[in-house]
């Protein structure tokens, strides 16, 4: 077992902020934030429209228990001191130390295409390699994207995730701040990943970053995000929205590795539209949080479009990982693959919710769904809620699910080779997750393996 410093993520930086809104949300808070950001009138109007939907919508009556989340006891906007910098050395020292502890600049030093770091409600650092900028690639925070490229943002904002999509998406649309704006020009390939990192530091904070990715015809991009927060006794909320537009013959890969602390409610909406022969891939790793509700979705709108969703979830004591994916087939000869793996320990709970929808026009559509779960003790629980709806005359759709415990024979075989029981258990779990980790860049695969090993400590005996 690798010796892991568990304090790497569970630390708190002294709070030095330039502005913090009052607790709770109303139109006055929304108007004040929009004014401070210097936004155009049309964005304020969208915010207010979304807020009107938010107040009318009820909390979901299905899924995880959200009764301990008090939406009136949150700060909806916290602006850290300092500006959005392009030089890491110019970021305020206390914020820089926070991300240095988390290893955020390391990936850029290993020649990633670009990095962005968000602290609380605002982006505090952003950098894109010059060689990519010269090709017309845009990678910046969402607020800067709105200021510098308002026509693009206005054209696509809210087109994939409507303002009234669900309560927490409406909340995000009304109070969003930060996030990433990515634009890849036609036939341009950004072969090395773009990276973003989101950190919650303030207690009782709501973080609502907004990410918009437009990949033009024949282009490709890979985007990776990480998330973390220290542990408090009170709940924080992370309610992001991600919109992806993959044009004809383009390819987008979106990777998330989250390690929220066990007081964070992670309630996000992530969705893509894939046009003709486009490929959208989601890699989704869920390790922390009290509750996660996340179903990466792809609308297969063009003929020949493809979607692949590969996700893993770990649910420990007091955690409920309610994850899955959606594939909406609207065009002929589209295909989707959804693979989910989960591990539950110490009474943790995982739920898979999958939706495959095949429209009448989607002749020749193919979809495969698989969800597998390991339960490491008698207290843990795993549920599967698959939904398949097909109106096409010719379509191939399949689903399989497996749940069980780790066989004693596997542990005995490894232990007979001199491996301790806890190390043998960790090896089996890591092997179970290997189909996910092998798709990650090396430094992320190593980090995820260490996180899983850390969570496995105490699983035996």
Tell me what the structure shows.
Helix 10 (421-432) crosses helix 12 (442-456). It contains 12 helices and 25 strands. A hairpin with a 2-residue loop joins strand 3 (114-119) and strand 4 (122-128). The strands form 3 sheets. Strands 5, 6, 8, 9, 11, 12, 14, 15, 17, 18, 20, 22 and 24 form a 13-stranded mixed sheet that branches. The chain has a 10-stranded mixed sheet with strand order 4-3-7-10-13-16-19-21-23-25. Strands 1-2 form a two-stranded antiparallel sheet. It has 2 domains: 6-294, no CATH class; 408-461, no CATH class. The chain is α/β, with parallel strands linked by helices and 461 residues long. It has helices at 27-37, 41-56, 93-102, 104-109, 130-133, 142-148, 150-156, 167-175, 408-415, 421-432, 434-437, 442-456; strands spanning 17-20, 78-80, 114-119, 122-128, 138-141, 180-184, 189-199, 206-207, 210-215, 220-228, 236-238, 241-246, 251-259, 264-267, 269-274, 279-286, 291-294, 297-300, 306-315, 320-329, 335-344, 349-358, 365-375, 381-390, 395-404.
């Amino acid at each position: 077992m690798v010796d892991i410093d568990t304090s790497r993520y569970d630390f708190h930086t002294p709070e030095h902020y330039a502005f913090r809104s009052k607790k709770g949300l109303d139109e006055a808070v929304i108007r004040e934030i929009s004014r401070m950001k210097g936004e155009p009138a049309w964005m304020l109007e969208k915010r207010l429209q979304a807020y009107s939907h938010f107040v009318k919508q009820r909390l979901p009556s299905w899924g995880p228990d959200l009764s301990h989340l008090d939406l009136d006891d949150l700060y909806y906007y916290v602006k850290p001191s300092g500006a959005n910098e392009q030089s890491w050395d110019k970021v305020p020292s206390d914020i820089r130390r926070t991300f240095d502890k988390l290893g955020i600049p390391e990936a850029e030093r290993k020649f990633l295409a670009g990095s962005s770091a968000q602290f609380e409600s605002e982006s505090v650092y952003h950098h894109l390699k010059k060689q990519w900028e010269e090709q017309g690639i845009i990678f910046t925070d969402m607020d800067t994207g709105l200021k510098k490229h308002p026509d693009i943002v206005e054209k696509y904002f809210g087109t994939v995730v409507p303002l009234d999509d669900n309560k927490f998406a409406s909340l995000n649309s009304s109070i969003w701040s930060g996030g990433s704006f990515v634009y890849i020009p036609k036939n341009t390939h950004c072969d090395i990943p773009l990276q973003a990192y989101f950190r919650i530091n303030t207690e009782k904070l709501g973080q609502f970053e907004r990410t918009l990715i437009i990949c033009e015809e024949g282009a490709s991009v890979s985007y990776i995000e990480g998330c973390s927060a220290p542990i408090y006794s009170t709940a924080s909320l992370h309610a992001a929205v991600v919109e992806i537009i993959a044009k004809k013959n383009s390819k987008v890969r979106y990777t998330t590795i989250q390690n929220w602390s066990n007081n964070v409610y992670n309630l996000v909406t992530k969705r893509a539209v894939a046009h003709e022969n486009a490929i959208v891939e989601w890699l989704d790793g869920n390790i922390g949080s009290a509750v996660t509700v996340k179903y990466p979705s792809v609308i297969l709108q063009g003929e020949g479009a493809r979607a692949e969703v590969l996700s893993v979830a770990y649910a420990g004591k007091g955690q409920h990982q309610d994850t899955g994916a959606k594939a909406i087939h609207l065009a002929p000869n589209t295909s989707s693959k959804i693979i989910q793996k989960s591990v539950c320990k110490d009474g943790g709970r995982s739920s898979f919710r999958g939706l495959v929808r095949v429209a009448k026009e989607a002749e020749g559509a193919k979809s495969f769904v698989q969800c597998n779960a390991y339960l490491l003790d008698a207290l843990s629980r795993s549920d599967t809620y698959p939904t398949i709806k097909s109106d096409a005359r010719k379509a191939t759709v399949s689903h399989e699910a497996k749940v069980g415990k780790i066989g004693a024979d596997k542990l005995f075989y490894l232990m007979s080779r001199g491996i301790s029981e806890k190390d043998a258990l960790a090896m089996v779990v890591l092997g179970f997750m290997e189909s996910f980790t092998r798709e990650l860049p090396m430094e992320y695969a190593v980090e995820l393996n260490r996180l899983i090993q850390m969570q496995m400590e105490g699983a035996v005996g």
